[in-house]
Design a protein that fits this description.
Strand content: 5-15%
Bound molecules: glutamic acid
CATH architecture of one domain: Orthogonal Bundle
Distance between the termini: 105 Å
């Protein structure tokens, strides 16, 4: 049996040969600087904040260079596949407005000319390349059983040798074709391993765009390329895919750095030009003084669904991720407070090669700023969408009192210095409950300086009888000053400060009474706006209990 026949014997027939596949995935016609990037998750259905970061960066660089960012699903490890895993990833990323130019669009569908984008649908392709390697004596069948592998591992641990199948542990790398065929005919199981041409003591240099030059020992592990189930390993599949799909920049988490010697070697052995590498630093968290990666198991904020559930606008999260991505973005945002991240050109040179601390306070602060600059209608729509999914009581109120609600959201908004208090829509009830009679459950009324019940009653009834006026802010305030004078308080702060003993209190004490009796809160946004929106009857209704 010659090697070609041997390869066919091991792998079986493939629909196309490697050369045919090469011809089926021609170079892309893009401009010279265009980047082809990809996001390549396993279909676990879970999107980690770090994955959002990676996919966001990958899609930004493709956009910025008029390139392509595609979604490839790496499902060759069937144990990691969950039901609706692909669609959940697509949905979660779409919630952050991340859409791919090419690749999977649902559980089974895709668009683009470089598919399939689901690795399990590409089995024939990987086999064609594996056959080629076997033919060239660069890959071989390995018959090591689970037990033998365990034994080798145990031995390596005992003598503190490197773990893996290499050198003398690669028992089958030089088995003759005849002996291999005889074993297979006798029913022995096998997998396909790379016959690594590497020498561990040789050094290789790999360039990473963020980290610069890195030195590694060459890979000498005979890694598995085709598993017992006929599917490839991640290492093998990704090299073939990035080659055929013409990825120019592999942008991924830095947990893959240690695999670089294997990846570079695979690209070489397969005769491919290696892509450029961009390994992103992880998002870290301080936990009891210890800095560690954000963990799916320990941290609610690790899941991107968290931001959706909390009602943190996706755009604010992306603005925050931009500050993590590029150290100069924050200064840019300060200088361009209404700026869109789309207007900022990300650069690799401003990316950090060490992990960044994930700062929730900063994110919420960015969110506050962002929400404060939205129009009343935008905030209303967002609040409505959020409550539709997460708070039916609020949803009903926002729907029933639409115009009123829009006006409520407009208090101290759509102006030069808008009020910044709402950071997430899950806080919305806390923010506006007292504006809806249905939600109004008064707090302890803290009237501050004026506490006498009779005095409070007098202030409220005199106000309602003689001075209520919400025509415009100036007359509203003038009237409160008149009320202040009439009741023997100081309507002018200067006057009051000059001689406090002459007065029972001042105009702000009076305003506090009007405010607290209405809302039960001592601090609210603009009282005039609140009173104007309430109208006389509703105000009287709230004041009644004190009059
Ligand atoms: N499928 C790999 C993962 O789940 C992708 C790694 C890569 O981007 O090369 O992280």
């Amino acid at each position: 049996m010659n090697r070609k026949e041997f390869a066919e014997f091991l792998i079986g027939k493939t629909e196309h040969t490697k050369d045919e596949y090469e011809a089926m995935y021609p170079e892309r016609t893009l401009s010279d600087n265009a980047m082809v990037t990809r996001f390549a998750p396993s279909p676990t259905g879970f999107v980690h904040i770090g994955s959002l970061f990676t996919s966001f960066i990958a899609s930004r660089f493709a956009k910025q260079t008029n390139g392509v960012c595609y979604l490839r699903i790496e499902d060759t490890d069937q144990k990691r596949t969950v039901e609706n895993g692909v669609s959940n990833i697509i949905r979660d990323l779409a919630n952050f407005n991340i859409h791919f130019d090419e690749g999977m669009t649902s559980e089974n569908e895709s668009n683009g000319n470089y598919g399939p984008y689901l690795q399990s649908k590409r089995e024939d392709i990987y086999k064609a390349y594996a056959k080629d390697l076997i033919e060239k004596d660069l890959a071989y069948p390995c018959f090591l059983s689970e037990e033998e592998m365990e034994e080798i591992r145990g031995m390596q641990e005992d003598i503190k040798a490197r773990i893996g199948i290499y050198g003398k542990y690669a028992k089958y790398r030089n088995l003759s074709v005849e002996d291999a065929v005889a074993k297979i005919e006798a029913g022995e199981k096998y997998i396909i391993r790379l016959k690594s041409p590497g020498e561990f003591n040789n050094k290789i240099i790999v360039d990473d765009i963020i980290r610069g030059r890195m030195e590694f020992n060459e890979n000498d592990l005979d890694i598995v390329i085709i598993k017992g189930d006929g599917l490839p390993t991640y290492h093998f599949a990704h090299a073939i895919d990035d080659h055929l799909m013409h990825t120019t920049h592999v942008i991924r988490g830095d947990e893959w750095i240690s695999s670089l010697p294997i990846h570079i070697q695979l690209f070489n052995v397969l005769g491919f030009k290696a892509p450029k590498y961009v390994h992103l630093s992880p998002l870290m968290k301080k936990d009891n003084g210890v800095v560690r990666k954000i963990s799916k198991r320990k941290d609610a904020e690790a899941a991107v669904s968290y931001y959706h559930e909390e009602g943190i606008p996706y755009y604010a999260v992306l603005l925050y991720l931009m500050t993590v991505a590029n150290s100069n973005f924050e200064a840019w945002l300060d200088a361009n407070p209404t700026g869109k991240y789309e207007d900022f050109a990300l650069t690799f040179s401003k990316m950090s090669s060490s992990g960044s601390l994930f700062d929730m306070d900063k994110l919420l602060n960015i969110s506050k700023n962002y929400i404060s600059r939205l129009s009343k209608n935008e905030v209303y729509d967002m609040a409505l969408n959020y409550s539709k999914e997460y708070d039916s009581e609020l949803y009903e109120l926002l729907t029933k009192y639409k115009d009123y609600s829009i006006d409520v959201f407009n208090i101290e908004r759509e102006q030069k210095k808008p009020r910044k208090d709402l950071a997430k829509f899950s806080d919305i009830k806390e923010y506006l409950w007292y504006m809806y009679d249905e939600l109004y459950k008064p707090l302890n009324y803290e009237f501050m300086n004026i506490t006498d019940e009779k005095e409070i009653s007098k202030i409220l009834s005199t106000y309602m009888e003689k001075y209520y006026n919400v025509d415009d802010k100036e007359s509203w305030f003038n009237n409160i000053k008149l009320l202040t004078d009439e009741l023997g308080y100081a309507s002018d702060m200067k006057e009051y400060k000059a001689n406090p003993n002459n007065y029972k209190g001042n105009v702000s004490d009076i305003a506090t009474v009007l405010r607290v009796a209405l809302t039960s809160k001592s601090q609210t946004p603009d009282l005039y706006e609140i009173m104007r929106l309430f109208g006389k009857d509703r105000i009287l209704n709230r004041y009644k209990k004190f009059m």
